[in-house]
Every structure is written in C-alpha cells, then in structure tokens.
Design a protein that fits this description.
The protein is α+β, with helices and mostly antiparallel strands and 251 residues long. The chain has five helices and twelve strands.
Length: 251
C-alpha cells in the first residue's frame, strides 16, 4: 500500500516528457552559477515537471543539493537565470531581485505593424513623431488559478519601456521585428500583456491574445521571448556583473 501511494504521488515525475534542450553555463564561481536557460525548460519543479527542470538538472550535474534559484523565468521564456550554491548566500542574491537592484533587458519577436491604443493604461512616446521607443504603463492583475493576467483601470503598477529594432523576419508570410523590452516593474506576464495590449502579441505566445492548448511534448513553436541581458552589482564581492544570453529568436 505504501509503495502504491509513493507511485501515485510521483506519477507526474515518472511520466514527464524529456525536454530536448540543454542550458549553457555562462559563468560560475563559489557562490553562483549563471545559466542560459532554453525555451520550454522550467526553472524549478512545478506541476508535472520535476527532473526536467533547470534546478534539478543543475543539482544532478554538480552533485550539489543546496543549489537554489535567485529568481525565476517562466518555462516558455529563455535566457539568463542565476542560481546560488551556498545556503548562507541565498538571501543576499535573492534580495537583489526582490528589491529590484538588477537591470533586466528582454528581446522578443512581434508583428511589424502599427501599434493599437490600449484599452487601459497609457502609452507615452519618447519622441512624439515616432511610435517607439515608448513607455507602456497599466495596472496588471493575476488571479490564482487563472491562466491569463489582465489589465484594469486602476492605479498603474506595471511599466515597460519598449524599443523597436530593425531586424525584420518573415514568418508564415507575416512580417515580424525584434523589440527590446525594459521592464521597470515585475508583474506576472507583464511583457506579454503589454505587447498584446498594443496589438503586437509576441510570436509563439499561447496565452495572449488567446489560450492555445499544446501537447506537453510539442516543442515546435517556442515563445519568442528571451531574457537577453542581466546586470547587477555582486552583493558578495561588490563587482559589477553583466550576463548576456546567446539564445536566438526564430531559429
């Protein structure tokens, strides 16, 4: 009976699909390991994902069960993630992210099209003669158990500086261009919500504007969003650190 309970408890762990993508280690010292996480690989165990996560792979690779993330990226978002090796240093690095003492830059692919005026919040152009760069601001809510975040007409709690690049790609007959995103806040799905609210949903987004169900082992269309650059002053050594993701968009 005990064995049956154990098998039921770990059913999802035993049956989870293999994620056929590997992270790259960009930097490591005695305190941290900085990983370039691929699309589809969760940062930490959640739901049906356990061994097929960056955290468990790292612990098994290094033989260090004390490794923990200093922050997280969504499973579908690729890019820079910092892991802490020593329990006594967890607080120092985690507080960097909690207190917003890091500078994050993201890059995505979205339609090359005129932006729409959002239903809620504001869009302020830096140069009134050009659509971008612009600051998108709104109030974003995310309810427990609800897949999509949403905007309401309340006091602003989310801000993103959006720049449009010049690298144009044709995907399924439609023109897409790279956008550089500078989040000033860190609400759940903030970048995806803000881009979608402008009528410029990120390529491969299966939540916005509509929820699209995919099989767990369908890796054919990644979310074209990468945590491209992370900068901070190391709380242990005081050194300025900059890490840049090598993950590509629309390979």
């Amino acid at each position: 009976m005990h064995q049956q309970r154990q098998q039921k408890r770990h059913r999802y762990v035993l049956e989870e699909p293999h994620i056929p993508f590997e992270y790259g280690v960009l930097y490591e010292n005695d305190a941290i390991i900085v990983v370039d996480k691929p699309h589809f690989l969760a940062t930490t165990p959640r739901g049906m994902w356990y061994r097929e996560t960056a955290l468990i792979r790292l612990r098994e690779q290094y033989g260090e069960p004390d490794i923990v993330p200093a922050h997280r990226l969504d499973r579908l978002t690729a890019g820079i993630v910092v892991f802490v090796r020593k329990p006594e240093l967890r607080g120092a690095y985690q507080m960097l992210f909690q207190n917003r003492k890091t500078i994050k830059t993201y890059e995505c692919l979205a339609p090359l099209a005129p932006e729409q005026h959002p239903q809620y919040g504001t869009i302020v152009r830096i140069d009134r003669h050009q659509p971008f760069p612009a600051i998108r601001a709104s109030h974003i809510c995310k309810d427990r158990g609800r897949l999509q975040a949403y905007e309401i007409p309340e006091t602003i709690n989310a801000q993103t500086l959006i720049e449009r690049g010049s690298t144009v790609r044709c995907v399924d007959g439609k023109a897409y261009v790279n956008y550089v995103l500078h989040p000033k806040t860190g609400k759940t799905h903030q970048l995806r919500v803000h881009m979608n609210s402008l009528g410029l949903p990120i390529l491969g987004d299966d939540f916005y504007p509509n929820i699209v169900q995919h099989s767990y082992d369908d890796f054919s269309q990644p979310l074209e969003l990468v945590a491209r650059e992370l900068r901070f002053d190391d709380p242990v050594t005081g050194e300025p650190r900059t890490f840049v993701s090598k993950c590509h968009l629309a390979d």
